[in-house]
């Protein structure tokens, strides 16, 4: 345990005294059970860490380090105030910051969920926002490992731009995006960055792209020795490397776009589920309504990796461009059954829209899982999500899809889940898939996503109290004339049988709400369960106000009483807002 030091000012002490006055009785009872004469000694704190916090390896030195970190207080131990201070401190988070990357990173890329962006260059909506390198930089700094660029000829047909084709999005030069990727690719994680290219270029411009990519990335560009790979390399082998993934070109070649029978299902009004998963997203640019109406939305909807990959579609391709492609993408001729066929001698990437995946999952769930054991499946938002909303990522993950591509420039519950998933494994952008998605049993059987499973474990969550809103929000933010009425929503996002949301009662007129409520969540697939936590302020006459959120991977959750930091709707951590919660597994 790393030794941390605090500088505790008078205001902070007063703040903790106020919070302590609202502390749940159970916290005070625990302190008295592990202390003598109002003092918890290092040995008693060690016992608390082992027995309540389930930190079996905690040493007397760890306990002393906690006491020393509160250096303005009693060095011989903790009194009730400093014990409470410790429980709310950054020394007591629900995930272990020092754990870092701890999954086996030596397996093929197909064995990992990968933090994946969709149309990574867009600053807002899909039809009329600006294209820029700024959202690419933000995504990379967050840990995103897959960046998507749509590449088109510029207006004079002599250079290459990045934009969402056939829309009013303003272009950005490809070279600017490539340079941004090179500069920021490994700031947050040293594991490989994949650039997925949606290619709309002529062969001469492909050659220009090949020159740009080669000159920009140099030795960090991964180029396989053979055109096709029998197995993908590992993230460990590809550390600090850039990987290009694309399909054979379609705009200027003979191959025609496949029009899926299910295209019609992607049109029309969003369903209730869409609304639940995709709230609070960037709005359309003002003043563009009339122009947007002129866009051929059908073309935009169908313009994403739905080209057939016949041999004749390669004859005009620039050879130096083709040599760059490490992960080949595209759909073979035929329908979904052909797309999901596994070639024992070659691995590839397949892209499906969220609607195509949902339709295929009805009857082909096991075939999708089998495909993703060796190959990479990318899932992207359906075209009607013009406001850059997102979808439920669990559908892709429970079928083994590695690249569940999201619009990272917005916010909303779906995106909170995506960010929560990739808090796992040290935030490196790669999370090893659960073993059951990778194993093949007798008679070549694989995991059936539709199978009814028994409960593996039960997560018991106690929501004690919260604090920090008084310091992070204007005092009139929630209510003009009285303190806020906070309640907490807590639940699970996971496989359908595990997914549920519950809520506490609202505590009236209190900046330091104490709920002290217990919830139990039986889990059939804890390996894919995400703990959702939200705080809202009850408003009788209007929509309830937002007070913070976080999503935590259940499989990395620390047992015990923990301080849970909350984040804004945009995913930015609040300075002070935290919940005190107790997590127990049985």
Automatic annotation (TrEMBL):
Record EC number: 3.1.4.11
Keyword check for Cell membrane: yes
Top-level EC class as recorded in UniProt: hydrolase
Cofactor: Ca(2+)
Subcellular location: Cell membrane
The organism of origin for this protein: Lupinus albus
Membrane topology (UniProt): Peripheral membrane protein
GO BP annotations, alphabetical order: lipid catabolic process; phosphatidylinositol-mediated signaling; release of sequestered calcium ion into cytosol; response to stress
Stretches with biased composition (Acidic residues): 300-309
Region (Disordered): 257-319
Catalysed reaction, written as an equation: a 1,2-diacyl-sn-glycero-3-phospho-(1D-myo-inositol-4,5-bisphosphate) + H2O = 1D-myo-inositol 1,4,5-trisphosphate + a 1,2-diacyl-sn-glycerol + H(+)
Biased composition (Basic and acidic residues): 257-278, 310-319
Protein name, per record: Phosphoinositide phospholipase C
Gene Ontology molecular function: any one: phosphatidylinositol-4,5-bisphosphate phospholipase C activity
Pfam family, one: PI-PLC-X
GO cellular component: plasma membrane
InterPro entries linked: C2_dom, C2_domain_sf, EF-hand-dom_pair, PI-PLC_fam, PLC-like_Pdiesterase_TIM-brl, PLC_EF-hand-like, PLipase_C_PInositol-sp_X_dom, PLipase_C_Pinositol-sp_Y
């Amino acid at each position: 345990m790393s030794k941390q030091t605090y500088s505790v000012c008078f205001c902070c002490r007063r703040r903790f005294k106020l919070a302590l006055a609202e502390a749940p009785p159970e916290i005070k009872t625990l302190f008295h059970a592990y202390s003598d004469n109002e003092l918890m000694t290092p040995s008693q704190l060690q016992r608390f860490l082992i027995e309540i916090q389930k930190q079996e390896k905690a040493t007397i030195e760890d306990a002393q380090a906690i006491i020393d970190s509160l250096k303005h207080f009693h060095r011989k131990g903790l009194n009730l105030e400093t014990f409470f201070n410790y429980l709310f401190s950054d020394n007591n988070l629900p995930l272990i910051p020092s754990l870092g990357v701890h999954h086996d990173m030596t397996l093929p890329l197909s064995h990992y969920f990968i933090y994946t962006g969709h149309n990574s260059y867009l600053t807002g909506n899909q039809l009329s926002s600006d294209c820029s390198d700024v959202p690419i930089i933000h995504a990379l700094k967050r840990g995103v490992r897959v960046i998507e660029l749509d590449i088109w000829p510029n207006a004079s047909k002599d250079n290459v731009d990045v934009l969402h084709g056939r829309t009013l999005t303003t272009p950005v030069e490809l070279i600017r995006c490539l340079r941004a990727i090179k500069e920021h690719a490994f700031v947050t994680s040293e594991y490989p960055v994949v650039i997925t290219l949606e290619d709309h270029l002529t062969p001469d411009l492909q050659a220009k792209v090949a020159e740009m990519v080669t000159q920009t990335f140099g030795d960090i560009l991964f180029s396989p020795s053979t055109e096709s790979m029998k197995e993908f390399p590992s993230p460990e082998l590809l550390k600090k490397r850039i990987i290009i993934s694309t399909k054979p070109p379609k705009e200027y070649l003979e191959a025609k776009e496949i029009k899926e029978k299910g295209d019609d299902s992607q049109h029309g009004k969003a369903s209730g589920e869409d609304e639940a998963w995709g709230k609070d997203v960037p709005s359309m640019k003002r003043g563009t309504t009339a122009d947007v109406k002129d866009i051929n939305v059908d073309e935009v909807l169908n313009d994403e990796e739905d080209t057939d990959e016949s041999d004749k579609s390669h004859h005009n391709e620039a050879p130096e461009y083709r040599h760059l492609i490490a992960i080949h993408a595209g759909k073979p001729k035929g329908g979904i059954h052909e797309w999901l066929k596994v070639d024992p001698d070659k691995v590839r990437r397949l892209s499906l829209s969220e609607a195509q995946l949902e339709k295929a999952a009805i009857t082909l769930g096991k075939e999708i899982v089998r495909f993703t054991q060796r190959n990479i499946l990318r899932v992207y938002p359906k075209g009607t999500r013009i406001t850059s909303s997102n979808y439920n990522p669990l559908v892709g993950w429970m079928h083994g899809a590695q690249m569940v591509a999201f619009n990272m420039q917005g916010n909303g519950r779906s995106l909170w889940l995506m960010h929560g998933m990739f808090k796992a494994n040290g935030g490196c952008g790669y999370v090893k898939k659960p073993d059951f998605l990778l194993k093949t049993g007798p008679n070549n059987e694989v995991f059936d996503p539709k199978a009814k499973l028994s409960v593996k474990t039960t997560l018991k969550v106690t929501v004690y109290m919260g604090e920090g809103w008084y310091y992070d929000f204007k005092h009139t933010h929630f209510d003009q004339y009285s303190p806020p009425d906070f309640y907490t929503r807590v639940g699970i996002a996971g496989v359908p049988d595990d997914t549920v949301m519950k809520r506490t009662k609202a505590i009236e007129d209190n900046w330091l709400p104490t709920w002290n409520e217990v919830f139990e969540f039986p889990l059939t697939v804890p390996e894919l369960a995400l703990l959702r936590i939200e705080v809202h302020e009850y408003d009788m006459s209007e929509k309830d106000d937002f007070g913070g959120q976080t999503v935590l991977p259940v499989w990395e959750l620390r047992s015990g009483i923990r301080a849970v930091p909350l984040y804004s709707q945009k995913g930015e951590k609040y300075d002070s807002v935290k919940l005190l919660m107790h997590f127990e597994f049985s």
